[in-house]
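User: Please predict structures.

Assistant: First:
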Amino acid sequence: MVNNSSVKTNGVAQNLPENPIYFTQISIPEILTIPDQKPDIEELVSVTVQAEVAAYNLIDTPCMKSFEGQLLSGKKLILELKIIEKIVYVADEPTQTNHAAHFENTMKSIFIVVPQEIEGTSMESLFNQNRIEITPYIEDIYVLQRDKRTIFKNLTMLIDVTLSC
């Protein structure tokens, strides 16, 4: 493995919400393999990551306390998160040209507990009126070149839900 402490990362949020109320924090580890048509990696240059909400749905859940101690309100949002990535690297060949590899993945089954209602308005009404705003924030990007074709990458994310009544 190659130490990549000098790899530039782009996409980390400059500001996070100060007092998030409805949110989840997740870690997304992933192994990326450079496509066959691209040359081997000599050295990573930069990693750019963009996250966007591809879809979400509101579901009913039991009202109870989970084994982890979380209070389940009876409502959850289920998200699909699209992760778009660009890896720039120096090719392991005599010319040492820069190359880029693009990746796009959809992460499913991200859950956020939300209340059944807020200020007298049901969550179904907010959902049907598109008054639920979901913002993914990338808190950290860790990247490590494993060998000449594979990269370990881990995203740490906070996904915030804002409800407007």
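Second:
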Amino acid sequence: MGLEIIANNLGFFLKGAILTLEISLAAIALGFALGVPMGLARISRVLPVRALATGYVEALRGTPLLVQIFIVYFGLPSIGIYLDPLVSGILAVGLNSAAYQAEILRGGIQSVPKGQMEAARSMGMTYGQSMRRVVLPQAMRLIIPPMTNEFIILIKDSSLVSAISVWELTLVAKELNAKYFDPFTIFLFVAAVYFIMTFATSKILRVVEKKTAIPGFGAGD
């Protein structure tokens, strides 16, 4: 059978790949929306806020993503919250990504020279204005390389939602393998599709990185 299996089921693979990208984009957006305030909380001068954010980051980074997916999908119904598999998968992967993105942003903010904040404060800006208008714009440009890595990892990790029956690329491969029993061809093809998606993501974000590079910082010098 070999390549004939791939050719006859290209439509299924394509749908799986599209859903994989949709899950990844939704999760990275959710992770960013939560990761930004979380990253700011990580450097907050208010101890309870900083402690709460640190606890979240350490808990999410210190437990397996698959377990977190199971908690969201199988655990939440026990307290009356029912989510379908796709929403559960996006929520779990997004919450997990938020912890990593918070740390990336914290590192980016701390990479901006302190003189930038001091200069902004000396011009009469408040701490919040200095952070919003001076520090964060620079930090956002500095975090593009680690965010590229996070996005690539997230695309690959999205395969874990197949464990709760989300019909993304990996589950499509599992089902086709159960039908044709040709794991080498099917999973090798799926691996190639994942590689194409991550490689393309890396190249696109590399272009963004070069266009937004700050002179004197990083690889875009």
